[in-house]
Design a protein that fits this description.
A hairpin with a 5-residue loop joins β3 and β4. The protein is of the alpha+beta class. The strands form three sheets. Strands 1, 2, 3, 4, 5, 6 and 7 form a seven-stranded mixed β-sheet that branches. A two-stranded antiparallel sheet has the order 8-11. Strands 9-10 form a two-stranded antiparallel ribbon. The chain starts with 11 loop residues before the first strand and ends with a helix. The longest helix is centred in the middle third of the chain and has 20 residues. It is built from eleven helices and eleven strands. The chain has two domains: about 90 residues, Phosphorylase Kinase, domain 1 (2-Layer Sandwich), CATH 3.30.200; about 210 residues, Orthogonal Bundle (Transferase(Phosphotransferase), domain 1), CATH 1.10.510.10. One of its GO terms (molecular function) is protein serine/threonine kinase activity. InterPro entries: Kinase-like_dom_sf, Prot_kinase_dom, Protein_kinase_ATP_BS, Ser/Thr_kinase_AS. One of its GO terms (biological process) is intracellular signal transduction.
Length: about 325
Amino acid sequence: RASPQAAPAVALRPGSVEELYELLETLGSGHFGVVKRCRERSTGVFYAAKFLKTRRCRGSRRGVERAQVEREVAILRDLDHPNVMRLHDLFASRAEMVLVLELMRGGELFDFIAEKEMLSEEEAIEFLEQILRGVQYLHARHIAHLDLKPENIMLQEKDAPRPQIKIIDFGLAQKLEDGVTFKSLCGTPQYIAPEVINYEPLSSATDMWSIGVITYILLSGLSPFQGETDAETLSNVLEGAYEFEERYFSDTSEMAKDFIRQLLVKEPLERMTASECLVHPWIKPLSRKQAAKRSRSSINMKNFRKFNARRKWKV
């Protein structure tokens, strides 16, 4: 557990990243920049360097708005938890910011699970519990991630006996302040909560809806609100229209369904919090009988692999 006296905030360095880091191969690239593997010259430790082209004003079409990157950095600088990706170093010039981040060698959690022959609910819960601990930490610091989805849940190392989960990508994250409402139409249709679509105030409960969706997919390989089009998906989310189809949930325990039901609730205040999830009997069994049900119930692996393959095609 991270102590309240978290690590000191990362200082912003002027100058070039290459003075202190050797830049290696490109790991990925997006609309606004590139991510490269790098090696810290002083320690030999490998990290991921995220280069973000920044622009000063909204009118410019090049790069990310400077204020947006600064918001992401301000959030990342103060985070120190085993299940949240850490910012290690930070460089800034007039036209670019470079974030030196913990390197995720294990890839995405869903890809890791898709390679398994079999997975019991008990094993799935080990991963889910780590996600919940990371989210609980963020929410205790009044930070809402607002983009929780399989692509943003990574493994630090794949081959560790108990792989460690890391929540990544704080590009949409918000520091929630008392008395200040925050609204935003952002996120990925099948994971966003009704209040996002309705342009209503967002809160930490918005993340809890996404955890409900992720859990549903993890157990069944089905996305609860996915329609033929984005418009249909959004309409399904607004109606809260989902069900536990017998052919996909035949090996799912009642406790797991109850867990999902308490998250996919239209009214944000009625959803379980991350702390409540961690003491729900599915996550933390109250009896031997409950624990036994979890180890006997299993994930629909055949369908989960199909879902994961389709997800890859869309990205």
